[in-house]
Each structure stands twice: as C-alpha cells, then as structure tokens.
Amino acid sequence: MPELTDLSVIRTLCEKYDFALSKGFGQNFIINPGLPPKIVDASGVDKTWGVLEIGPGIGVLTKELARRAAKVVSIEVDERLPPLLAETMAGVDNFKLVLQDVLKVDLRALIEEEFPGMPVAVCANLPYYITSPIVMKLLGDRLPIRNLTVMVQKEAADRLAAAPGTRASSAISCAVSYYATSKLMFTAAPGSFYPAPKVTSAVVRMDIRTTPAVQVEDEDGYFALIRAAFGQRRKTAANAIASGLGLPKDKSSRPSSGGLRRPHPPRGPDPRGLCCRTAGAEVRFYQNKTPRPPQSGTELRGLGRYVEGMEDGTLLTSAVRCGLRRPR
Ligand code: SAM
C-alpha cells in the first residue's frame, strides 16, 4: 500500500470512493510522515499492548499503531469511511473497526471484550470539535486503560496539561489532574494535516492514576465546585461559585445559613472572606481585592481569587493539586 501521508494518494482514494473530507466530523488527516511514529513513541505502547483509537480516518495513525501494538480497535463515526479503510488496512489482521459515535459506545464493555488481559492505551488524533467530551468520557468512566495520548489543538493541549496554578489551568485541567498526570509531548504545525487547520496542534499524554489524586467525599459536588469556580470569570469567585452551585447569594456578605456566608469565627487576615460548604468541606473565598494573600490560603492564580480553610483538609488538598495553589 502506498504511503497514506502522500497527498496524491489521499486524493486518489477520495476520488475512487467519492469521499470528501468533512469539516463537521473534524477531519484533518495527518500528512506529515514523521507524525504517526512520533505519536506512537509518545504513547509508549509495544507488542504487548491493546490500543483503542478514536477516529481512524483513512488509517494513517492506525497502520503505525497496528504495526507496533498487539491489537488496535478503532472507533469511527463516519459511515463513508469503512470502504476506504478496507482498502488501506487490507491484510492488517490485528485491526478492528467499530463504526459508531465514540460518545455513545460502552467503552468499558468494548475494552473488556477486545483486550482481555492486555494493558490498554488510547491513542488518537482527535476530532477537535469534541476534544473535551471525549477526554472527559475517557477519564470519567474510570476505564481499564493505562494512558491516553491524544493530538488536539495546542490551546486545548495547554489546558489538558496545565500545571496547577498556571494561567492555562481551567476546569478540565482540574479534572485531568484528578484522574491522571499529564504532559505536553510535542507540537505539530498546521501543514502536518490535510486540510491544514488554522491552528497549531499538540500531543498530550495522560497517565491514569491508580487512585484519584485526592479523596473527595462527594465527587459530583467536587466537580460542580470546580466548574463553578472556573465559570463566569468576570465575576468574583464567591459570586461565580454561588451562582454556579445555585447557592443563595449574599451580596452584603453578611452571614446567611446555607449559601455563601462570612466565616465564623473569622479566620485569616481578611475579615471580608466568605465561605461555603460543599463537597463535604468548607471552602473560604477571599474577595478579589484582598491586599495580601492569607498565610494559610491558596490562590487561584490568574483570577486573583483566594481559597482557604477546609474542615478536614480534603478539598484544600484537591484544590491545591488541581489548580489552586498556595501563595508564595
Ligand atoms: N486518525 C486520522 C488521522 O490522524 O489522519 C483522522 C483524524 S481526524 C482529526 C478525526 C477523525 O475522527 C475523523 O476520522 C472523524 O471522522 C472521526 N470522528 C469525528 N467525530 C467522531 C465521533 N463522535 N466518534 C468517532 N469518530 C469520530
């Protein structure tokens, strides 16, 4: 089979099967021949591994994965692609295609059925329009996988790999760091793809933790808090969290039962601090104009927000690891 990264080969295949690349499905195929080996290197798989690929396209990365792993199962949503893949993957007997929307597949059942007893990795050049839902599904479903190595938009990669407390840190960074450790491996210029996207791409590897970074009493509550804390960045942390969690607002910052209230007894150097109880812990938020970071507090950097004080330290630890960090 001729080189699938060769544009004239891609065009001939497309003509033969009357296939036009779909923007809607985020189809930007790899045409840089150096990329597939580099992505597979980054994933660290070898002949003992099973690999789940999302979006094989015409099979550029798939072929390299099949060459280097024990078995590859690729999930593709575009019903026009199986005839092309039948040609490009002909004779590759450790490859299987699943024609479905990845967001609708029971991935646990699929992995258990296809890769019994094997270490499993996810490796993909993801459709950029659904990067976050795919990554959240892969992480949140607690699948029996060891790592994820994904090509995404550079901006999304920065968020997936953001270190705690950095500007790029966002709700998804917190979610990733809860389930995995992550690393930005390398970038790829727009010209590495056909058609060339408008933006630079990057590969991120996420290694799944055997247990989450921290123990939280109420996982749903914890993620709701994260989403609220990072949502509506124009609001103060207290107001963003109050509205995100549906807590009653207390504009005057006076004590109120339930929602945000002044800590009692007041702790830390800023008596204007507010606190709320969520996810089984007490979180204190210092209003945005706190002159000096509280000694024992944590700062949500880039937002100028301060969070302090847990009853049992649980959420504080989570927060510190997930993007809130102690002031220097
Ligand atoms: N792996 C190929 C490559 O690197 O050249 C193609 C990557 S392309 C960026 C993304 C692929 O994901 C396309 O084949 C697209 O049809 C597929 N895709 C898009 N949405 C999908 C979904 N919801 N489920 C499964 N595959 C999807």
Describe this structure in words.
The protein has 328 residues and is an alpha/beta fold. 30% of the residues lie in helices and 21% in strands. It has eleven helices and 13 strands. The chain has a seven-stranded mixed beta sheet, with helices on both faces. The chain has a four-stranded antiparallel beta sheet with strand order 10-11-13-12, covered by helices on one side. Strand 12 and strand 13 form a beta hairpin. The termini are far apart. Residues 250-328 have low confidence and may be disordered. The structure holds S-adenosylmethionine. The site of S-adenosylmethionine (SAM) has 22 residues, from strand 1, helix 3 and strand 3.
The residue fraction in helices comes out at: 25-40%
Number of helices: 11
SSE succession: HEHEHEHEHEHEHHEEEHHEEEEH
Mean pLDDT: 77
In what order do the strands lie side by side in the largest sheet? 4-3-2-5-6-9-7
What gap, in angstroms, lies between the N and C termini?
A: 58 Å
Structural class, by secondary structure, is alpha/beta
Q: Tell me the major beta sheet.
A: 7 strands, mixed
Number of strands: 13
Question: Beta-strand level of the residues, as a percent range?
Answer: 15-25%
Small molecules in complex: S-adenosylmethionine
Work out the radius of gyration.
23 Å
Q: Stretches where pLDDT falls below 50 for ≥5 residues?
A: 250-328
Shape from CA axes?
globular
